[in-house]
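Quick one: structure tokens for this chain, please?
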Amino acid sequence: MSFGSVIIDNLGVTDVLPGASMLTGLIGNALGLERRQGQELNALQESITYAARRDVPGVPLVDYQTADLGQEFMLGGWTTRGKFATRAGSAAAARGTHIRYRHFLANAAVTVAIASPRIDEFADALRRPARPLFIGRKPCLPARPIVDTIVEASCLRDALLKVPVIEREQARDPFNDVDELEGFVSRWPLDDGGHDGATEIFVNDTRDFINQIHVGRRAMWQGRLPAPRPAEVLSADRREAEAS
């Protein structure tokens, strides 16, 4: 998976947790929205708030890429709209090989809590997406269903405290490990209040989908949240079973 952060020159780095624009793209793809529907994507982004917890840190992976954008076959191609689109500007005029580095997190696992008036619509779309889903970049296919459960909570931070941590064995990176005794690195909205040891950070995670640029920055809490106790976990399936 890859959570786009601020790109510097040819370095496409990844954040440790996803942001609003990536979640908007993921949900928008599941709903069948297209890039040209900037107004709809902006409205979708404004309709969601989220919190995220890093359950398994994964191992950092850097993909070395080369591309000659000036080659004839790179100057255009057919789109999903059935029209042939051509490149313009410096990329089309450039000749020679361009070197890029794209960062990924291999075998990582993240739990995301989303609140929205459209949450049921989002959940249905993620269960039966209009198109194949990917996490950050197209090579990053999910290894399990995206939707895990629906919980009732007073805020998004507390929702994370009700969802069990994803367990996955892996060769852990000693420089990017998790101390489960201290909790799991998490982010949540300022309105949800602080937590022991939490600090206020700034994230650059919103996008203007009409003009296709990232805009502004905003504050969130970042800290470590403990794993929920089994008795606190209540899945949608269990709720339905109890109701019946």
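The longest helix spans residues 20-31.
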